[in-house]
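Fold this complex.
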Amino acid sequence: MEHRREALYEKGPVRPAHPAEKKVKPMPPPLKDVVIVGAGFAGLSAAKELAAAPVTVTIIDRQNHHLFQPLLYQVATAALTPAEIAMPIRHILQRQRNAEVLMDRVVGVDTKAQSVTTESGRAVPYDALVLATGARHSYFGKDQWAQHAPGLKTLSDAFGLREKILMAFENAEMVVEDDPEAAGRFQTFVVVGGGPTGVEMAGAIAELAHSVMRDFRRIDEARNRIILLEGGPRVLPAFTEDLSARARRDLGDLGVEVRTDTMVTDIAAGRVTTDQGEIAAETIVWAAGVQASPAGEWLGIPATNNGHVEVDATLRPAGFENIYVIGDTALHRTGGSALPGTAPVAKQMGTYVGRRLSKLARGEAPPHEFRYSDAGALATIGRNRAVADIFGLKVKGFAGWLLWGAAHIYFLIGFRNRLFVMLHWMWLYLTWQRGVRLIMHRDTEDEDKAP
Amino acid sequence: MEHRREALYEKGPVRPAHPAEKKVKPMPPPLKDVVIVGAGFAGLSAAKELAAAPVTVTIIDRQNHHLFQPLLYQVATAALTPAEIAMPIRHILQRQRNAEVLMDRVVGVDTKAQSVTTESGRAVPYDALVLATGARHSYFGKDQWAQHAPGLKTLSDAFGLREKILMAFENAEMVVEDDPEAAGRFQTFVVVGGGPTGVEMAGAIAELAHSVMRDFRRIDEARNRIILLEGGPRVLPAFTEDLSARARRDLGDLGVEVRTDTMVTDIAAGRVTTDQGEIAAETIVWAAGVQASPAGEWLGIPATNNGHVEVDATLRPAGFENIYVIGDTALHRTGGSALPGTAPVAKQMGTYVGRRLSKLARGEAPPHEFRYSDAGALATIGRNRAVADIFGLKVKGFAGWLLWGAAHIYFLIGFRNRLFVMLHWMWLYLTWQRGVRLIMHRDTEDEDKAP
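Structure:
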């Protein structure tokens, strides 16, 4: 049984002809099967760039959907629904006839046999391999913090956090008259990390907290506390000092306490300890660090502390002719400094590799080195404030927010999502409502009949 | 600790004044605290009707949201998102100052002490109690069928089914070349029960199956089978024969095999056995019977086989002065025949009880007996077909579908939901896309870093 399965992807007479192959004229071998692992921004961009190339593209992901991670925090704060920021990979590649999607999980790479091994026991052969496997949060070795301070990388992370935040208000309402201290813990939200994710998350929680208050009868809005902790001297360290200061002021206006120069030393249930003292909080969100996926291990090469694989100017790790590592998994240095793990970097890397492989497959000269074109950075703070530093232009406040919204909607893959996200946001803006405040886990736990 | 919690809801000096109570002039006791268990159509209607009454309304539900169950099958078939058919109960009752929402689970009723006991250890006192706890599926004593043939009552039921249906296609695509028989099982969908739920579900699965086919490369649409099984001689037995026949023809046009006079005798993994033979199918949906919630047990009175509590013309079970049972939990006979478990029945019962309690609280004469006003019945079959029998008018085909859509959108609670459902449907109609085809469970299972 198992060997028959593998035959599906093995070369030789057993292998079924792919529809795309019939149209393509037979080419002298070098490059025919391109395998891309991961359908994030990097992997998808590479796949799309290969649409017209004389190759077969197999894209492997253990999820069936591409996720627009930059807006994940909006799902966690009940502003958007999952379907608005996610789309089935098959659907995105529906019209690309040379692309095939495999929903499976990669467990290793056999670089000698040139094949990728998956959890279901397949061996998917490649002539060129693109690893675009992304990153997860990193707790700097304190993995025991993870259970108390979840991060935000997948839809289920976002669901879990949404549930935790919404249940915090339910719980506070329930105990406030008997145990005001416990209620205070439920009404306190700590976000660890003052980068764009942390800033956006803190602003969004502050707004959510404000907007749900009307629905409760007993708890007091004045007791809501949203605290943003940052180890360095200012939030958004990648931005200019001016924009950092503006972001801090905007956060303050929303009711977020920003504490810079504050190092977290311990996290336990209901409590964050810092070098400045202790904070009692039931909801703690981790936005302080990421860890690349184990692509380095698969290749048997050393990775950095954060699991990144260092790549050269053509996005290949040293010593590999036909393997590319891109997106959040890659460490690419330009003039000494590493490129950040952002969506624009991932997209541009994917496009570069796709173009390079297209050229190679056609027997043409490959493009020159990868060069990142930095359009700038954007971060939003709540409902109508943002800071943006785009093409050297610094924009703040409402204008920044409009720019931020436009940029994100523009980058959302798929017209449906763009349309609905836009409508949904307009709606939220006009009404201050959060439509997606559903707590769903409870009916998973017990399936019996009582409400 | 526990006794302090209870104090919250106990009468006497400890009990905090409710905001609404300050405005209301003190009344001579009989009816002050109304407790409603369950925030479905029945419970919410009762609560809303009590908005202007001199009472405190406490509505208890273990979910935080009201669910528009008639459209749940559209979440299961990836046409709507959960947020479009669910809304936080607190939000619905936000402006009703005499209403309080308690997210907790009822475990019993102490009719002597006149209080409701909850899972978290509370005792919520009542002067009048309204039980509107709904129903779950019933397998006629074959509970072991449940795991293979899930029904559809909650959001998590709908999630589970959506995932099962979408994964069926993924699995079929994976195995079709090695094991066509297994692929056939994955491409076969059986719906048990030919009432409105079963008919709507079968039509929706047929459409979903058709629309996802474009995204797959290997499986063949001609091998998709959607089979609807009905024990009686026709589908939609509550409709006229004419409309039944039309529904059957419409289902046939969508590619659904309708098998009437077919009794299911056994259900196991991957297999349904009927008195007419066996069907190999990985996805089996149960739409054949419901079982009321255990309200009868709480009251210590005998319920019917299906757990229904028989009520009199004022919707009270015999022997209870101040307890009402309404909605799917109640068995109410009019002229010998029982009212069906539908949303209109539940709403009208809720409104009646709310009005009755309002009058009693004001010391006025209560209204006459409950009388159900039957507006008719509606069922949709796929994208632009429906059968409707409304106010004696029989409507079929596209006109029926428009009527069906209008009626459902009209009844959706909350303007946001109405607007978005309408936009979403227009979008689906224009594009034949299913936007919500997300498989989410996989990232709950394993939290590590590989994609």
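Residues 46 and 353 of chain B are 6 Å apart (CA to CA).
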